[in-house]
Here is the input.
Amino acid sequence: MTTTYTGPAPADFTDVRATNLAVVLDYVRTNAPCSRADIAASTGLNKATVSSLVGELIERRLLRETGMTERRIGRPATMIVLDGAPYAAIGLDVGTDQLTVIAVDLGGEHLLAWRRAFTGRGATPGRSVAAIAALARRALGRLADQGRQVLGLTVGVGGLVDPDGVVRIATGLDWRDVPLRDSLVRALGAPDYPVTVDNSANLAVLAEHRYGPYAGTPDLAYLTSGPGVSAGIVAGGRLLRGAGGYAGEIGHFVVDPGGPECSCGRRGCLEAVAGVGALIRRLAGTEPAGDLEPEVAGIVRRARAQEPKTLAALHEAGRHLGHGASLLANLVNPSVVILGGHYVPLAPWILPTAGEALDTLVVAPQPPGAGLVASALGHDAAAVGGAAAVLDAVEAGRLPLPTA
Amino acid sequence: MTTTYTGPAPADFTDVRATNLAVVLDYVRTNAPCSRADIAASTGLNKATVSSLVGELIERRLLRETGMTERRIGRPATMIVLDGAPYAAIGLDVGTDQLTVIAVDLGGEHLLAWRRAFTGRGATPGRSVAAIAALARRALGRLADQGRQVLGLTVGVGGLVDPDGVVRIATGLDWRDVPLRDSLVRALGAPDYPVTVDNSANLAVLAEHRYGPYAGTPDLAYLTSGPGVSAGIVAGGRLLRGAGGYAGEIGHFVVDPGGPECSCGRRGCLEAVAGVGALIRRLAGTEPAGDLEPEVAGIVRRARAQEPKTLAALHEAGRHLGHGASLLANLVNPSVVILGGHYVPLAPWILPTAGEALDTLVVAPQPPGAGLVASALGHDAAAVGGAAAVLDAVEAGRLPLPTA
Here is the structure.
């Protein structure tokens, strides 16, 4: 007996069958091969219901029967595994300097992974949307050639994205109130699969939650820097979205009131003292523009060469980042805070001071393995997360239409 | 079509029937009187399943049939309503200066509400636990006299409570590693209902989520001051607990690095600049001890008399509190941040500056009605929330044992 409980199940009353389909699909995903009797025994659903649910999932080509049988007491059973061969889930991440599109099948195998240079800043939103749609169309064409049915497309943007897929603010792209989802739906000819738009950090933490070293950990936080700084949070096994979809905005938390000026007009915001853009500004003496990756690679070179100014700047950025991470740790108490994006190559020099600052500022006794780690998923996390978001939705019961 | 989805249902595979019982119970709670056919139509469960679930809920005396019938097309149907007459859910809040115990029935009607003076600080944990157990026993005795079956007892403490009900740190009570749950279970003779312990702010936000003016709002935050400051968060309709159960620790977030010293050794923590203890220290010039309520009442009197020093201190505390609230707003994006506990009587003087600071510091476009409000539940919120936590657990499918 513990004090843990999760409150009432989030029951959408019209959706009990969808929930049960999701329960069966998720069970098979984690326990395949398994028999209908296994599913019934483990889920508590009665056998007739399981047969009906499995039948529907087979019809939709999400599951299939194998020839395998189980030889226990009684007659052998037909075993069920994921089908999913004909499906594709697509994630497309819009960075300031590049676009990444990744498609996976139901089991998470990559079907394609492309990166393209992109002039996010400086172009009009209309041109940017056209470039995004063009890349999506090419990926869709390739998947069609492979005979894949698309389950959905989720696009990530570093910024505030409302529940209708309007990008309210994306400073890295210089966007305000860009109706990205509707524009893409139009550009793709109103497809019959869902097209959604989400914050990149939200998608990245979904990728960590599904595919990273901490996959399945119910409470995770992800901290990344675009040029800005933002967080994605999984709490109790679900993405924390908030009332308007804007959770995770940590970049303008003031960690150093006397610090450098921030793009928001205040001083010493996390973004201004520990963002990758700020680091480049300080160390390269130039305004970060276009592709950040070579600039970050330059910082890594100078850090490897033990250049004192570079090391000092990284250590200081680490301390501030640890301060920022302590906010996440204290307010949402994740098992671990994962540093992603451009922080990954810099991690050897920022993690030590960041970890110290975090340890000093965390109030609660830490669970085992708590602290800060660098992401193992690298720059693809948000695009992979877009595909993961599609799979999450399917597994929650938003099943694809049966093929004609 | 929106970008909103909630990810996979939190499926505990052994618990599909419990979930379905919960679905039916929650449906009747919000739609009674209703027929079995109504339940089947609205939940998507088949009629045979609904009959079996309703039968079990009637057997456990959570539902009952009424003589009422519905006259539509076809034969009249027996209507179902909440029974719950014989049940009681108990919440007990341990303040630094008083104990509050509240019992409610399934429908939320108060069966008893008692407050007792309590010397939380200065007494040994053993004596305090004995006092808590004594009050619980008296409440249990009264409920037994009323013929009530107890569904559960949840005790709230202002501090870090682990999932086993051990109070790891409660500075207001001077407790460290006090195994409150186990001690209470022993003192109450190992009762057959669940005894749980939780953080008071967590329980208070559950009370707001069930009974407050924002009841049912999926994303809520609650900010309260004991003498310390802490937060409770409901995200996506569920309490945000975090990996170790320690979410909501906002009190030692540094809002004013040059500010007054905090009990934690740092300077300018939210608790040190906007906690009710700090306010008393500044305005009364005395160390807050024992009952804070008369001291707060004194501050209210001086504020009503427009005493400049008092008004200035409250306005400043409000600004800092707005800064703290902005963290909640930016990181978890609730529909509203509710100020509770001792902040409620002070709200007329702290809300204006707090609201201004919040508006300045919130990054996202605010949903309608966003901002800061004072709790309508007052000092009873945590005790009511303890009872609400018991009802949440029942409605999630942790049903009481059938009476012998």
The CA atoms of residues 141 and 148 of chain A lie 10 Å apart. The domain at 215-376 of chain A is CATH 3.30.420.40 (Nucleotidyltransferase; domain 5). The longest helix of chain A spans residues 308-332. Residues 1-14 of chain A have pLDDT under 50 and may be disordered.
